[in-house]
User: Which sequence fits this backbone?
């Protein structure tokens, strides 16, 4: 259409070329041409707006950040679909309900206001670090999403595209947030950022201490909070240090706890919204499950897993899921390689009875484990087209952790297998988890692998390499291998002095680490000089 209007607009020039001089003709054509240009501008602007609307429905990951296809960081009001932010989908609606703006087939039901909404929105308006804590599928992410849309619609929302991205990505993200006047940093599943060390107290201060109105909104599962902050009484200094690092971040947050089971007032509000048949269905089970929990199919998935161990059911599929749960508990937080779960699962199958369970073929096991239930979620969800990597439904991890307690260990045999398949960030996360649990031999093997990987990818003098070497030296000290620990710490200190200078914080930390080892070795004079 625009092309046709452009041709009409060019008509006066065409008439002049053919020497048409009648003033009435020229005047009429000029008027039509002017109107055509106005219409062309209108249609161009309309198409531009339509393109922007389409852009606002499609996201991509650019430089570690969730953005529109155009590369723009969205404002809160432009994020209409909460699924990219981590909200669990529910089964599609079968009919249109009475709620305005809701259509059949959408993957998110109407929102049932929660008792904490007023406090949550008040804290968002005040700014700072707001943390929603609760069980998996309690509705934390949905409550946060709805509060943001209601309270801060014009803020830019910064969402890390990969929860396991490295420190460099987080540093770049913080720099971009610093340039924004109104910004929200959205950190769903905060444990990923705490365990990997990508979020620290210093970074919190940089975000919240800048100009403008800045908010950090995060979610954290209760079981993960227990693991991060409640260490066993016999924890050594290294373990306490890891716990302190997480505690320093968490103590700066305004915590809001969201209960899984809905209160009487919340149930009343749910009944008002029962025109959405998904809400009505969930209300039938409200005495046993939370509304959000039921909508996300958490109990259904847990039952499917528990029942699968029966003879002749799907024990091999259950073993794949059990392996995935333990990989997460061991510290492997990024998507799990399919080959890793296939290598691990036989041990779990054998523990439950092996061939006496009449396990199904492996291909059938994968089909069972990755099948969506109630059109909502799967026990194992593929994250790429070829199914090479998968995520385990976090509800299962949460329930397993609650059953066993925060200090329960995965079997030793699992760790070497994980390390054979892990990328560097996961290797380091597993190493830190093993060190925190006092399993120093496993931690040392993981740190040694991480150091070599960092050398190969980043070079000998990169901060990531030095951090890994310092961590390795720390666990060697825990093992009583003091001479090796001294050599590592001394090498790291030499590089820090040469590259960063004597007064750099990393150099000072390295000096203190070396002094501690020297003191244990009885070399008190040199230790005192370094301190």
Assistant:
């Amino acid at each position: 259409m625009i092309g046709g209007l452009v041709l009409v607009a060019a008509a006066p020039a065409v008439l002049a070329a053919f020497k048409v001089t009648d003033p009435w003709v020229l005047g009429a054509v000029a008027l039509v041409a002017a109107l055509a240009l106005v219409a062309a501008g209108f249609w161009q602007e309309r198409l531009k707006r339509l393109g922007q609307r389409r852009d606002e429905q499609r996201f991509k990951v650019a430089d570690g950040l969730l953005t529109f296809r155009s590369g723009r960081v969205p404002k809160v009001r432009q994020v209409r679909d909460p699924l990219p932010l981590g909200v669990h989908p529910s089964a599609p609606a079968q009919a249109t309900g009475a709620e305005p703006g809701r259509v059949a087939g959408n993957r998110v039901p109407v929102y049932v206001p929660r008792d904490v909404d007023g406090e949550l929105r008040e804290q968002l308006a005040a700014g700072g670090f707001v943390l929603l804590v609760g069980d998996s599928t309690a509705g934390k992410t949905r409550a946060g999403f709805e509060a943001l849309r209601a309270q801060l619609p014009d803020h830019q929302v910064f969402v890390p595209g990969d929860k396991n991205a490295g420190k460099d990505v987080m540093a770049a993200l913080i720099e971009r947030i610093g340039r924004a006047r109104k910004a929200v940093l959205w950190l769903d599943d905060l444990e990923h950022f705490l365990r990997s060390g990508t979020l620290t107290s210093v970074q919190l201060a940089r975000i919240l201490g800048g100009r403008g109105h800045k908010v950090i909104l995060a979610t954290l599962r209760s079981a993960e909070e227990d693991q991060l902050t409640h260490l066993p009484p016999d924890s050594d200094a290294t373990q306490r240090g890891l716990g302190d690092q997480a505690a320093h971040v968490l103590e700066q947050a305004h915590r809001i706890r969201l209960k899984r089971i809905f209160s009487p007032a919340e149930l009343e509000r749910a009944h008002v919204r029962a025109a959405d048949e998904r809400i009505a269905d969930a209300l039938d089970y409200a005495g046993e499950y939370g509304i959000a929990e039921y909508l996300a199919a958490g109990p259904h998935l847990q039952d499917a897993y528990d029942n699968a161990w029966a003879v002749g059911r799907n024990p091999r599929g259950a073993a794949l899921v059990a392996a995935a749960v333990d990989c997460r508990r061991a510290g492997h937080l990024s998507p799990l390689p399919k080959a890793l779960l296939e290598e691990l699962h036989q041990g779990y199958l054998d523990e439950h009875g092996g061939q006496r369970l009449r396990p199904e073929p492996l291909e059938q096991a994968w089909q069972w484990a990755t099948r969506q239930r109630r059109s909502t979620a799967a026990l194992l969800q593929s994250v790429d087209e070829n199914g090479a990597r998968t995520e385990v439904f976090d509800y299962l991890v949460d329930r397993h952790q609650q059953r066993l307690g925060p200090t329960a260990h995965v079997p030793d045999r699992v760790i070497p297998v994980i390390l054979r398949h892990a990328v560097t960030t996961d290797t380091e996360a597993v190493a830190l988890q093993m060190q925190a649990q006092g399993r120093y031999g496993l931690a040392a093997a993981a740190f040694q692998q991480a150091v070599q990987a960092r050398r190969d990818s980043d070079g000998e003098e990169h901060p990531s390499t030095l951090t890994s070497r310092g961590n390795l030296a720390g666990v060697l000290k825990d093992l009583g291998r003091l001479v090796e620990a001294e050599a590592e710490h001394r090498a790291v200190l030499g590089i820090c002095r040469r590259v960063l200078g004597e007064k750099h914080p990393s150099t000072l930390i390295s000096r203190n680490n070396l002094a501690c080892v020297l003191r244990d070795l009885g070399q008190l004079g040199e230790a005192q000089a370094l301190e």
